[in-house]
Amino acid sequence: MTEKQILSYIFLKYAMGAILLYFIIDIVGLEGWGIFPLLFAFLATKDFVQGTRLADSYFKIRKNRDK
Q: Which residues cross the membrane (predicted)?
Protein backbone atom coordinates (compact mmCIF):
# COMPACT_ATOMS: atom_id res chain seq x y z
CA MET A 1 0.00 0.00 0.00
CA THR A 2 1.17 3.48 -0.71
CA GLU A 3 1.17 6.27 1.84
CA LYS A 4 -1.76 7.94 0.11
CA GLN A 5 -3.83 4.75 0.20
CA ILE A 6 -3.17 4.25 3.91
CA LEU A 7 -4.20 7.83 4.70
CA SER A 8 -7.35 7.39 2.59
CA TYR A 9 -8.20 4.19 4.46
CA ILE A 10 -7.71 5.93 7.83
CA PHE A 11 -9.98 8.78 6.72
CA LEU A 12 -12.59 6.30 5.44
CA LYS A 13 -12.63 4.44 8.77
CA TYR A 14 -13.21 7.67 10.74
CA ALA A 15 -15.82 8.90 8.24
CA MET A 16 -17.79 5.63 8.42
CA GLY A 17 -17.63 5.72 12.21
CA ALA A 18 -18.97 9.28 12.22
CA ILE A 19 -21.79 8.40 9.80
CA LEU A 20 -22.81 5.42 11.93
CA LEU A 21 -22.67 7.60 15.04
CA TYR A 22 -25.03 10.07 13.37
CA PHE A 23 -27.48 7.25 12.56
CA ILE A 24 -27.25 5.94 16.13
CA ILE A 25 -28.18 9.33 17.57
CA ASP A 26 -31.02 9.75 15.07
CA ILE A 27 -32.52 6.28 15.56
CA VAL A 28 -32.25 6.35 19.36
CA GLY A 29 -33.96 9.75 19.39
CA LEU A 30 -36.86 8.40 17.34
CA GLU A 31 -37.31 4.81 18.50
CA GLY A 32 -35.05 4.21 21.49
CA TRP A 33 -32.46 1.50 21.85
CA GLY A 34 -33.05 -1.58 19.76
CA ILE A 35 -31.05 -4.11 17.80
CA PHE A 36 -30.03 -1.74 14.98
CA PRO A 37 -28.67 1.06 17.18
CA LEU A 38 -26.69 -1.52 19.15
CA LEU A 39 -25.33 -3.02 15.93
CA PHE A 40 -24.46 0.44 14.58
CA ALA A 41 -22.76 1.33 17.89
CA PHE A 42 -20.65 -1.82 17.67
CA LEU A 43 -19.68 -1.10 14.06
CA ALA A 44 -18.91 2.57 14.77
CA THR A 45 -16.70 1.60 17.70
CA LYS A 46 -14.95 -0.99 15.54
CA ASP A 47 -14.30 1.60 12.80
CA PHE A 48 -12.91 4.17 15.25
CA VAL A 49 -10.64 1.59 16.90
CA GLN A 50 -9.36 0.28 13.57
CA GLY A 51 -8.77 3.80 12.28
CA THR A 52 -6.89 4.76 15.44
CA ARG A 53 -4.73 1.63 15.37
CA LEU A 54 -3.96 2.11 11.70
CA ALA A 55 -3.08 5.78 12.27
CA ASP A 56 -0.83 4.82 15.19
CA SER A 57 0.97 2.23 13.06
CA TYR A 58 1.28 4.68 10.17
CA PHE A 59 2.89 7.35 12.36
CA LYS A 60 5.28 4.82 13.95
CA ILE A 61 6.38 3.58 10.52
CA ARG A 62 6.73 7.13 9.23
CA LYS A 63 8.77 8.15 12.30
CA ASN A 64 11.15 5.19 11.84
CA ARG A 65 11.42 5.83 8.10
CA ASP A 66 12.39 9.49 8.59
CA LYS A 67 15.32 8.60 10.87
A: 20-44
By residue range, what is the domain housing residue 30? 3-61
**Whole-number pLDDT of residue 65:** 85
Q: Is residue 67 part of a domain?
A: no
Name the region of 33 (left: φ>0; alpha: ψ -120 to 50; beta: rest). beta
pTM given for the model = 0.84
35-62 mean pLDDT = 94
H helix count then E strand count, the chain: 2, 0
Contact indicator for 41, 24 with CB cutoff of 8 Å: yes
